[in-house]
UniProtKB/TrEMBL annotation:
UniProt protein name: F-box domain-containing protein
Gene3D superfamilies reported for this sequence: Ribonuclease Inhibitor
Record-linked InterPro entries: LRR_dom_sf
Amino acid sequence: MIFRDVSRRLAAPVVESSSEEFCPVTVSSVVQSLVLVDDCIEQRGGVSAFFHLLSGQLDDKLLTSPESPFFCPVFDSPNLHSSLAHWPCLRKLSLASSTPWVLHGLRWDTLKAMMSLPQLEEFSLHGLTFSPILATDATPEELEVPSLDHLTSFRYEAPSFRVSSWGTRESYPFPSEETMLRRVLEKLHLSVERLTLSSEAAPIDAMAQWEWPRLRELTLTGERWAEPRTPLLSLFSSMPYLRKLALDLSVVRGYLADPPPLWPCGHRAAFPWPDLTHLSLSNPHAEDEVFAHLPPALQSLSLCCCPHKSEKLLLDGIATIPHRYKYLVLDSSGMLGILSRCRTPRLAHLKIEYNAGDREHDLLEHLTAAFPRLTSLQIHRYRNVGNAGPQNPPVTTSDRTIDDVDFQAVESFGKSLALLASLRTFNAYLDYEDTPRPKFDRPRVRGFQYSSQDIDRFTATLHKAADVLARAMGPSVESVQLWRPRELEGYEWLAFRVVRASGPAGVEARCEEDWRVSSR
């Protein structure tokens, strides 16, 4: 169906005269998924207004501060709300910000109207704050949360204003945001099947007390909390039917020691999620007992640092990044210890991140033997250079060239994975010697840029590395995707299609980026 999925950018409220222009009835009658992107000009004023409040020692009055620019007028339109009520097939509604890092949100009555649409099954709020301020004259009836039994999916991901360098850790989450989000989840916990939350605003204590009889997927992003200290295994034990658990949490330097394991040594309990098929656990702990109890039917496992250690040079240099993170990357011996305890022969997708060490060959050898059904594999691997460690990644310099890259090591790495007979897609960050470094002396958009010459040289390295890997790995591999830095997004995966010919051409990796350009 042509108009099943629709995306619209809104710079001004929808008025009655423009309702048909916003979306013709012939289209709205068949739309199933709608993404509304906030293009409001007031978005950028929220952060500066927030600091004005803090400087005036008005933390306790944040609930009653002026509404502008904390609220988005674009989504407040009654015409928008009434229009959406007449979209009979609408099942998924997503509201998002067009601008990164803004303090701009939705009023409670707007959120209430949107979430209450009876035909809706999925609601998502991304980049916008959930009810940052409550009206001073709001009545208990107006703050009441309606029945939300019709929602099976709820997603709330917003930028955190608990910023170390700004001194705002005690000012976020906002009391109204925390209160109303908790009330909504209290209505949802018996019916929701998929839940994604920013950890800073999530009511973890309350969530641990509620029953979640229908929850199948839980994703938490953001900062790893220091309190409560209850093992995560116990916190989420009231979610017995989970199939996917993603704890993609970062560790902030100076505010939390190394995060405890999901299942501490000596903790007596039964594994609470027997149906689990997908587990993503950032900053894995080498002594975590959970790996010895994973169900044999597990299909996907991710054990990476959050953010990736490959992003450290970039994130440490940008003044607007909220925190300085810890990069708790295990060495190859530690990762081997974890994977050796996993009895998951059906595993099809694996992501790991480690510092190379003496047991790297053993790690890769075990990986191929223990998980023969892998169809996709992503590896972030860091060279063992000098005293490199979790806090000290190998330093690369822009004067390195492709001639400095050890392609024999790349070939050896590929051959170590050649026995994975079902592998189709391989993604890798292999810490090449000529990896570009961001330059912060020429401010641009986010205060950094990469030298185009460095990127071009590095891209040539990736082309050669992809060829080497394609020839070294098994015949089942169809795609090799290699990490490349990118200015606005941080990084991207440069994709190569593995082409196998019977003639003298043999095996080669063709860059999909080059193929798209040449086919225009």
